[in-house]
Amino acid sequence: MMLRARCLKYALSPESDRIIPALNQLCAIYQKAAIKGGLKSFEVFRAFYEEYVKIQEQVYLAREQTKSKGQRPVQETNNLLNYAHDLLEGLIRRLASLGSFSLDLLTGDSRAHDLTPTQFVDLSLRDKHRRFEGHPSVLTGTCQILFGSVRHDIRNAIAHKRYEIQEDGAAVLNDFQPRTNRRLEIGRVSQNELRDLIAELELAVDVFEISTLIFQHNHGALLNQLGYYGRQKDYSDKEMVEMLHLEAPAAFLSVEHVGIRGDVVNVGLKVISLYRQKASEVFVSSKDRSGKPIEYKLPIPPRLISARDQTFRFLQKASIYCRRYKEIDSRTADLDGTHLGEVFAPMELLIRSTEQPVTKDEFMKGLKKNTFPSN
Fold first, then answer.
1. pTM of the model
2. Which residues of 20-41 are buried (b: 16+ CB within 10 A; e: fewer)?
């Protein structure tokens, strides 16, 4: 749903002529790197995604604070500055991790082998910007849409609280040059200029997010090309565990542990997405290619139903690797460790559901145990 919503939003917008080439290039870079670098691409993706999930709520709250009504200009500007910093440092820096690793790998830079996935996630925004800007095969338009709105001087001033907010809401920003021990004047930024900057940063975040969602969606095909994925292969227990860990992020889950008891594979899962507790709808306002306004809505399932469906999807894929065993017993927990549900599934049912059409009702009735809600 997340990928469909974002693709629809931009496929119909006037920005599509800029966004689609950038997405195509990012996805091509990720795919080439995955084929060349193998499993480390997925390890970098996992490390980035774990950090990305942790700050999503923080960024959401920062955005909501900028929309609060009745704020004084000084407070509103302060919230805008904080949100701009969260977009730059919180999201764009993390989202650029997979691309930065991919470019290092494709150019033969030793960093691709020497740095751990976590170190790639932790690299500075400036360093990642330079990678895209200096790579000969990255289109100018791609770099512009991703980093054209990135102002390192503004990021630095906000991070170190080097600004003064005037009564009309304008912010006067400055920086510090450590080599010369001099104060550097960045300039005066009005509220409207801050909002324009934020709109461009949000666009860059959207493009990065869509590209990583596509990478996640296509990971099965990539694993197949790498020789890690195949219905006919008889997986050893070690290979089975490795593949379960690789499959989980595609269902927005992480594998906490895998155990074997007789003919049963026991899997502990944790939800790593941030769906809301109650069912809701997303209303999207956009424009078609002729510039006419259009609106559409997309449903968001409640968290428990979403976790249930993600678990079912994971179990179907897991059957490819666990088919030497008769059953899979999975327990799914929330981010904070709260137990959400347990599913005890016969392997025969899971295999059949991947090879031929099986209705949801038939699937649910065939489970030996399911403590998730049924609706």
1. 0.72
2. eebbebbbebbbebbeebbebb
